[in-house]
Amino acid sequence: MKEILTPVIFLTYTGVLFFPCSGHRIERSTSCAQKYQVIPNHSACLQKTAIATDSGISDEDKNVIVSKHNEYRSVVNPPAVAMAKMSWDDEIAMIAQKYADACKGLVHDGGRQRSIPGRFSVGQNLASASYDLDWAGVIKLWYDEVKDFTLGGNNDLMKVGHYTQVVWATSIKIGCGFAVCGSTRSYVCNYGPGGNLDINNPYESGSACSKCPNSCDNNLCDCQGKACENGGTMDFNACACTCKPPTTTYVGPSCQLNCTGQKDRSYICGPQFTPAMCDRFTNVPQDCPTMCKVCPYAGIGFAAPDGGQEPVKSNTRLSILTTMIVLISFRLIF
Ligand SMILES: *[C@@H]1O[C@H](CO)[C@@H](O)[C@H](O)[C@H]1NC(C)=O
Ligand SMILES: *[C@@H]1O[C@H](CO)[C@@H](O)[C@H](O)[C@H]1NC(C)=O
């Protein structure tokens, strides 16, 4: 078990005034699905700050983000035996966007706070700029850390952590968010399933695509957007998942979580360990879905009282108003 370490990138050290975001005053909102509400401070439940403007990502930029990542993934040197072709994921992107709108600057949210309960843990790259940097430029900055990287070497996480996330072989899904926060632009990309653990070995080297000849497209294993959830492992040649046991808990072609009759079986879920483990270790929510409240809320077919759906997004004006009310009520309380 390893903790996920997530570095930040500082584009500007001096001469830039970072707007003092009211991040620590953000209230949890109930405008998020119940599976997120049960996780303390989940980013999906953050409210948009009043200073966040111009938020969101155009379809054009989504294409740039995905294709730039795939371009860099296809040219890794030495080549990769099985480098997954990335595709966009709306749920990952929704959480990244909520986090961008919270205007936290270059501070990462917690691994648990950005994870997707019942699907997978999620990695993250951040960037912040005082000028209008386009997405291709942001991803290039992350990729350019390649100059300090040696595959299998003894790399410095703070120097190469963004690069290793960009080329993490099994992170097959990406979703990003963007907001202008006062005078700062905030870029958030989240990656699932999360990885970036052994940063010296983001992928296995060998002849390109040699472990996925059947799905190979331009040096990438193209499984048409399919991902394995809940710790399932992908056979990138067959594009098929091998789910973790027990077979009644992780079911179907993508290893969806079945909470019916679920009991935590692993020794790490016992009373000798505490639910705090759910926050610290990415495998614990998978292995102990009941202790970590992933079950029943993220199980297949779970019906929340409100249907468990994301409510229709309120318009910007309304959410600004809501944030102001929250801030005023804080003033009254403190
Ligand atoms: C949630 O956020 C609040 C306010 O930032 C903090 O005091 C609290 O410790 C957080 N709880 C968890 C479980 O992260
Ligand atoms: C979910 O688990 C229950 C109890 O173990 C089992 O009866 C049921 O068949 C499972 N559902 C699926 C879709 O596998």
TrEMBL record:
PANTHER family: CYSTEINE-RICH SECRETORY PROTEIN-RELATED. Residues 60-199 form the SCP domain. The keyword Signal applies. One of its GO terms (cellular component) is extracellular region. Pfam families: CAP (PF00188). Keywords: Signal. It comes from the Eukaryota. InterPro entries: Allrgn_V5/Tpx1_CS, CAP_dom, CAP_sf, CRISP-related. It comes from Magallana gigas. This is SCP domain-containing protein. Residues 1-23 form the signal peptide. Coiled coil: none annotated. Gene3D superfamilies: CAP. PROSITE patterns: CRISP_1.
